[in-house]
Amino acid sequence: MPDASSYTGEPDVLFSEIILQNNRADPYLLYARLRETPVSRQRDGSYVVSSHAAIRSLIFDPRLSSEDLPPSRRPHTGNPLRDWFLNPIKNRIVTAHRPLIFRDPPDHDTLRRFVMRQFMVGRVNALREGIVREVDRLIDACRGRDRICLVNDFSYPLPVTVICELLGVPQADEPRFQVWATQLATAIEPDARHDEGGRHRTVAAFDEISAYMRDLIREKRRRPADDMLSGLAAPASAGGKRMGDFDLIATAVLLLVAGHETTVNLITNGMLQLLRHPHELERLRADPERAPRLIEELLRFDPPVHFRTRKALGAIEIAGETIPKGAPVILVFAAGNRDPARFPEPNRFDPDREDNQHFGFGGGLHYCIGAPLARIEAEIALVALSRRLVSPRLLQNPPPYRLGASLRGPQQLGIAIDGIQ
User: Fold this and answer.
1) What is the pLDDT of residue 356?
2) Is residue 303 within 8 Å of 358, Cβ to Cβ?
3) What domain range is 416 assigned to?
4) DSSP for 162-197, written as a single string
5) Hey, which bits of 273-355 come out as E strands?
6) What CATH number is given to the structural domain containing 203?
7) What is the DSSP letter of 155?
8) Tell me, what DSSP letter sits at residue 399?
9) Predicted confidence (pLDDT) per residue in 124-168, tens digit
10) How far apart are CA 268 and CA 155, in angstroms?
């Protein structure tokens, strides 16, 4: 595996090296090379931002736009009615009604307020007992085995169960939306935007999951329940407003996909680090109250989302560089989280770290809506795993990783165990 010291390429292609699959297991040495030039222009015209200070400045800068996805474009079908009339209409609707993480104010703020009214603290906290039961059920299902795959057996099914309950999505439909979610997660990868075949697959997945959500929303309006989708789909109160149907479908898709994809990585990365640092595993087992601090350090040290893309709405001078209007910008949160100018001994996993202002959930206007729920799930999961798995050991280190460089986490995490307590 290449490392930063042996890297011989030019700095203006360094990010293209980072997103290669063979660097997925450990991109941090290459991130250190990036930070040598906190804002660096890449050969493709994009600007990569890697220092903590520069990222923190830009996430609050209104000149940086989240509306950076290319316009929706459905593939040519040979059917004149579809190609000349129906698909252009669909393309305009999808482009104008992106999920809120790809929207700027004022649209972003309006959509976020609708979601936050339903993402109430009480509703999230009410899930805690159910999460505990599901965690125990998943661990109990591993009895009699001497090895498990944490992803398949635990860290994927847990967040799916939780987000389905929160939204009111039938969990029996999980096999249908798993394929769609996996494809849609690639949409935030910078290289995927230049892959015509991949873009067509993403469009097809979005159309299919949108049709699914449209039907589910109709059912929620006929038979409302105590869940987020029912709340979002409910008629507006007197003098109030409700989310438009196109935005509601896009929001529902976002909540379903983002509500489990990132939490899978958070739990899996967390167990991986505990197994690599067995003294921390023992400390957590002996003192579960350490869990919140451990989760915060995990979000800094090995976060589930490594970078996000933006677009400059105007010229921005920062860190000795001028980002021109219209330029793509990549905020490498995981590089900022290991910045030695901000964190002492940044490459040391230290749950006792003070002043841990990381970018594990992004920041600014787009700070992760689901952060409180993700923290609850990860804390309950890692405490239970540390206490109930007997003598857990990694079967492969590093494990195989998922394809995505932005949503980064192991595809599988094989663990040998001596039993279940």
Assistant:
1) 97
2) yes
3) 4-420
4) HHHHHHT--GGGHHHHHHHHHHHHGGGSGGGGG-HH
5) 308-312, 316-318, 321-323, 328-331
6) 1.10.630.10
7) I
8) P
9) 889 999 999 999 999 999 999 999 999 999 999 999 999 999 999
10) 6
Residue ranges of the alpha helices (H) in 46-195?
52-58, 80-81, 87-96, 107-118, 121-125, 128-140, 150, 157-167, 174-185
How far is it, in rounded angstroms, from Cα 16 to Cα 20? 7
The CB-based long-range contact list for 232-241 (8 Å cut-off, 24+ gap) reads 232/114, 232/115, 232/118
| CA distances in angstroms from 112 to 105, 210, 248, listed in the order given | 10, 19, 11
Task: Return the C-alpha torsion angle 402, 405, 408, 411, nearest 10.
Answer: 0
CA–CA distance, 307 with 47 (Å, rounded to integer): 12
- Peptide bond before 400: cis, by omega within 30 degrees of 0? no
Strand partners, 148: 415
Lookup: tokens for 218: 């109709």
Tokens of 90: 């669909």
List, in order, residues 6 or more apart from 15 with CB less than 8 Å away.
Answer: 34, 42, 46, 48, 330
Q: What tens digit of pLDDT does each residue of 263-280 get?
A: 999 999 999 999 999 999
Residues 6+ apart with CB under 8 A from 48: 14, 15, 34, 39, 40, 42, 329, 330, 332
Length of the chain: 421
Residue pair 357/106 in contact (Cβ under 8 Å)? The answer is no
How many structural domains comprise the chain? 1
How far apart are alpha carbons 124 and 263 in whole angstroms? 15
Q: Dihedral angle at the C-alpha atoms of 214, 218, 221, 225, nearest 10 degrees?
A: -70
**Which two three-digit tokens encode residue 202?**
């993403």
Q: Give pLDDT tens digits for 306-349.
A: 999 999 999 999 999 999 999 999 999 999 999 999 999 999 99
Class of residue 411 by CB neighbours under 10 A (exposed 0-12, middle 13-18, buried 19+) = middle
* 7 residue type, one letter: Y
DSSP strands (E only) in 313-371 = 316-318, 321-323, 328-331
CB-count burial class (<10 Å; 0-12, 13-18, 19+) for 14: buried
Q: Where are the alpha helices (DSSP H) in 186-237?
A: 196-222, 228-233
Termini Cα distance of the chain? 38
- Asked if 111 contacts 251 with a C-beta cutoff of 8 angstroms, the reply is yes
Q: How far is CA 73 from CA 190, 202, 414, in A?
A: 17, 10, 40
